[in-house]
Structure formats: structure tokens, C-alpha cells
Design brief:
The protein is of the alpha/beta class. The protein is built from 15 helices and 18 strands. Alpha-D-glucopyranose binds next to loops.
Length: 547
């Protein structure tokens, strides 16, 4: 794998909410093409596109009808090629999302399975079972799906099919050779079109062992992820990714892949990142952490160790399309340390202030943004690759005030509102401070933008050298310059006061004050600061120094 992947800054685009070229209120590929100049200017290395495939949007596009086509509302294959060409011409790599744990219930093979009936070969590509109870009208197990409700849905002939997520997302049976072929074909299809890499959705979930007797939900909760769990992080996933790696390596340069791996034990996560496997795995530990020197230090040390053992590089993520934006998380009162439960405390959205539509949220927005910038500048200095989520470069925070009628996330719908879901981080970007959708497009945006978005519009921030956008651009420009002199091995913690973390990458030093009080400024020439510095290193601030 070319080394550049190991340090790239990847910018995640949620296509439906990035830019809308045809005015239908949904972002599209032509919208992305029209904003390539912005992406290039930002100073990132690659873009990752969340799904843009044909889909009923039961889960924001993660319910895929056809893995080798484009949703007509989002564009065409020709439009995809144009977008790819424009991104490549700007020097940016393109990563697409592969969703191999489940298809949508509209996929041709699921429709075939429904029509073919119980016991048919077509049903064996998915996970169908008879129910329990005298008439088979109880689901095979009492397990709960990730978006609420049962993991089993009954079809008219009486059988039940398994879905880790929504009923519109039936899980594939990865013991079936057709399923292997479908995804090899898909990887080849996009690689042949010039895609540079893949983000693998729910990478830890594909391999399943549903040998009877199946555990009850209570028993399942006690089985650790790993070889004894029926579906979470089983060892056989390794074989699937080794098969894919052989295909990735047929290309020149070899295609890159990063797994969405929600696996607590870093050593087990490291398997996915090995060079003969995907090559990189998301480390989501910072999504669960408070803005705390102790928590950050432990996470960094642990993940650098895993990266070196697995022969990969680490990844650093503060926001994505599934979690509360970090500018909001850091403005909330500190969460209790995680107890390992999922979702972890910092990711829970059912906090009172979000539920009440943020009428009186205990969110300190100024502090949240200040800490968010400091945390971003902290991770941008670390060895490895950083993943940014669209809008964080504008300092956007979560949109708490969304009417129930506007919400689209199955989490909200299936929990009957008990969990507000992920729409708050998926609101269309503000490009301008005026117009029907603040420059996103000419129509009404598919999720309403709040009034305060105007102040965070790209046009407003581009004109302001003190904006969050100007800060991100400067940080990314400097980062690529500073990285030229260092390798991943150049990393050493420095002595620092309590509540402050400091590390050196050769002559480049990164200092972050996680506390609420200023501390003495270390020696050296300041290259960049996340908040203005005068005489001391202020609270919640990161500086880069040259020594
Ligand atoms: C991943 C995606 C998330 C999606 C889920 C089911 O976690 O990031 O958005 O809902 O998989 O596909």
C-alpha cells in the first residue's frame, strides 16, 4: 500500500447534504463536482463519500438496492465519472462506501428470496429461519436490533429474516459464495472506474454463526465480541478481507480500505488494519472520550501501539455522520467515564436538552467550539490519518431544534422519538448567508437549516481570517509542510504540567492545554494556535511550536 494513505487527511462527504446542483433539495454528485475548488482549497488529501447508490433511504442510503449504480436523485454513473475526474484533477483521492453487512429489502436478490419461498436456494443468500412457538409466530430469538425493535421480521409465508439494523436492511449470509462474488464484483466495478479506496460499513459484523441453540438476549449481552459471539467480530471476518485484499492488490496502486470497526479491544481492531486485510481501521475511541488530558493520552498511546503492532497507521476521528458533532459534545457537561456499554455515554442523544429541542440546552457553545478546535489541532499533529466530517471546518454544531415531522433517521422513528437520532449532524451545509437553502441549492433543503447557520456559511467564513474555516485551512496547509520532515516513528511525549499534553514530532511540537486555566507558555516559535495566545498558553487551546 502506498505510504501516503498512512497520513492522509480524509474529508467525509454526506452527499445528500453537501451541495444540491439540481435544486430538488437533496445534495447530488454534480453538487460535489461544483465544489471541487472548495475541497482543494481546504487542503485535504481525499474525500470519502457516504452511499449514493439507489436506495429507498430507509437508513440514509445505508440500505442499498444496487451496489453498482447511482441513485437517480443523486446523479448518474457518467456524473460519477465526471466527479471522480474533477477530484483527481485537483489531486484528491476518492473513497466510496461499501455496505456488505446488509442490502436493502429492495435488492434484486432479496426480492428473489421472498418470491422463492422457504427452503429455496435464493433464501440462503440471506438469513431466514422458522419462528418459535406453536405456529412459528414468535421470532427465533428475542434479540434487539440496533435501531430498536426485533432483529427478526416475519414475511407473509411465515418465515423470519434477520437484520442487525432496520427491517429494510436484511443481513447477508456470508457463508454463501454468491455473496462473496457480489462484493468482489462491486469492488472491481468501482476500482475499474478509478476509485482509490473503500470505507467498509459495519466491517466487524459480516461473519455469523447462528448454530442452534441460539442464546437469549440476556445471554448474548454477556458474550464478549470475538470468536464466541454469533455476529460481532468473529474471526472469520479476516478471511473475507484477505480475499478482498487480493483484489485490491490487483490494482496499481493497490486500492485502499478502512473498516468501520466498533470493536472495543484495540488488539482485535488491529486485525482489520493489517496489510493483508483492509489496511486501516477506524479508531472511534475519541468519540467516547471527554475533553480530558488523561483520556486523550491513554487513547493515543494505546492506538499508536496497536498501529505499530498491526503494521498500519492509526486513524483519528472526532465527528462523523453517526455521532453528535464534536463542537456540541465538548460544550456539554462532562460525561461519566464509559462503562463499555453501547452506545457509550458521550454518544447518547437522548439527553434532555436534545429531546426538548434544545430550548434551554446546558450547552456552552463558545467553549464547545474552542475545545473542538483545540482537539482537532491536537489530532492533526499525531502520526496517522485524520478523518474530518463535512461542516466541522465551519465549526458547525449539532442542530438540536428539528421538528419531529422533519426527522428522517430510523433511530428516531423506531424508538418513537426516545432517541432523537442522527439528523442533527446531517443538515445541509450553509454555503452562503442568504437564499432558499443558504447556497446549498435553489430548493427547500431536505432537512431544515436553523437561522444560526447563516453565521457559519462558507462565504462568511472565507472572508474572515479569524474564522474556523481559515483556521482549518491554515492547519492543513502547515500539517502537510511539517509532515515532510517526519515519519510515523517520530513521536515522543514531552513533560508537561497537569492537564496539558505535549508531544514532539522531530522539531515540531504540539501542546494542548485541556484545563480551564492558562498555563506557562513553552519555549519555541508559535506556528499555529487554536485560540489567540498572549503571554500564556490559554485554557482549552492547542499550539504548534517549532523548536
Ligand atoms: C454504519 C453507518 C450508519 C448506518 C449503519 C447501518 O454504522 O455508519 O450510518 O446506519 O452502519 O448501515
Amino acid at each position: 500500500m502506498p505510504n501516503s494513505w498512512k497520513t492522509d487527511v480524509v474529508y467525509q462527504i454526506y452527499p445528500r447534504s453537501f451541495a444540491d446542483a439540481n435544486g430538488d433539495g437533496l445534495g447530488d454528485l454534480a453538487g460535489i463536482t461544483s465544489r471541487v475548488g472548495y475541497l482543494k482549497d481546504l487542503g485535504i488529501d481525499a474525500v470519502w463519500l457516504s452511499p449514493f447508490y439507489p436506495s429507498a433511504l430507509a437508513d440514509g442510503g445505508y440500505d442499498v438496492d444496487d451496489y453498482r449504480d447511482v441513485d437517480p436523485r443523486i446523479g448518474t454513473l457518467e456524473g460519477f465519472d465526471e466527479m471522480c475526474a474533477a477530484l483527481h484533477a485537483a489531486g484528491l483521492k476518492v473513497i466510496v462506501d461499501i455496505v456488505p453487512n446488509h442490502s436493502s429489502n429492495r435488492h434484486r436478490w432479496f426480492q428473489e428470496a421472498l418470491a422463492a419461498g422457504p427452503g429455496s436456494a435464493a433464501r440462503d443468500r440471506y438469513i431466514f429461519r422458522d419462528g418459535k412457538g406453536p405456529n412459528g409466530d414468535e421470532p427465533p430469538t428475542d434479540w434487539k436490533a440496533n435501531f430498536g425493535g426485533s432483529t427478526w421480521t416475519r414475511v407473509p409465508d411465515g418465515q423470519w429474516y434477520f437484520h442487525l439494523f432496520a427491517p429494510e436492511q436484511p443481513d447477508w449470509n456470508w457463508n454463501h459464495p454468491d455473496v462473496h462474488r457480489e462484493f468482489i464484483d462491486t469492488i472491481r466495478f468501482w476500482s475499474d472506474r478509478g476509485v482509490d479506496g473503500f470505507r467498509i460499513d459495519v466491517a466487524h459484523g459480516l461473519a455469523k454463526d447462528f448454530t442452534e441453540p441460539l442464546p437469549t438476549a440476556a445471554e448474548l449481552a454477556l458474550i464478549p465480541a470475538g470468536p464466541n459471539h454469533p455476529f460481532h467480530d468473529r474471526d472469520e471476518v479476516d478471511d473475507i478481507y484477505r480475499e478482498w485484499r487480493r483484489v485490491f492488490n490487483e490494482y496499481d496502486p493497490p486500492r485502499f480500505a478502512v473498516g468501520e470497526v466498533w470493536v472495543e479491544i484495540p488488539e482485535r481492531r488491529g486485525r482489520y488494519a493489517q496489510p493483508d486485510s483492509l489496511g486501516q481501521a477506524f479508531n472511534f475511541d475519541l468519540l467516547r472520550a471527554n475533553f480530558s488530558a488523561g483520556e486523550f493520552r491513554e487513547i493515543v498511546a494505546e492506538n499508536l501501539e496497536v498501529a505499530s503492532v498491526s503494521g498500519s497507521s492509526s486513524t483519528w476521528v472526532l465527528s462523523n455522520h453517526d455521532v453528535v458533532r464534536h463542537a456540541s459534545r465538548y460544550g456539554l457537561p462532562l460525561a461519566a467515564p464509559g462503562d463499555g456499554s453501547f452506545p457509550p455515554p458521550t454518544l447518547k442523544r437522548d439527553t434532555a436538552w436534545l429531546l426538548t429541542g434544545g430550548v434551554n440546552p446546558p450547552e456552552d457553545t463558545a467553549l464547545g467550539l474552542r475545545r473542538a478546535k483545540a482537539a482537532t489541532q491536537f489530532i492533526l499533529g499525531l502520526p496517522g490519518s485524520a478523518y474530518l466530517y463535512q461542516g466541522e471546518e465551519l465549526g458547525l454544531r449539532e442542530v438540536a431544534q428539528l421538528d419531529a415531522a422533519a426527522r428522517q433517521d430510523p433511530t428516531f422513528l423506531r424508538s418513537e422519538g426516545a432517541d432523537v437520532g442522527r439528523d442533527g449532524c446531517r443538515v445541509p451545509l450553509p454555503w452562503d448567508d442568504h437564499g432558499p437553502s443558504l447556497g446549498f441549492g435553489s430548493g427547500k433543503p431536505h432537512l431544515p437549516q436553523p437561522e444560526w447557520f447563516k453565521g457559519y456559511a462558507v462565504a462568511v467564513e472565507e472572508a474572515d481570517p479569524a474564522s474556523t474555516l481559515s483556521f482549518y485551512k491554515e492547519a492543513l496547509r502547515l500539517r502537510s509542510k511539517l509532515l515532510q520532515g517526519v515519519t510515523d516513528e517520530d513521536f515522543a511525549w514531552l513533560e508537561a504540567p497537569d492537564g496539558v499534553l505535549a508531544y514532539a514530532r522531530g522539531t515540531w511540537q504540539v501542546w494542548t492545554n485541556f484545563t480551564d486555566v492558562p498555563v506557562d507558555l513553552p519555549d519555541g516559535a508559535i506556528l499555529l494556535a487554536s485560540s489567540p495566545v498572549s503571554g500564556l498558553l490559554p485554557r482549552a487551546t492547542t499550539i504548534w511550536l517549532s523548536k
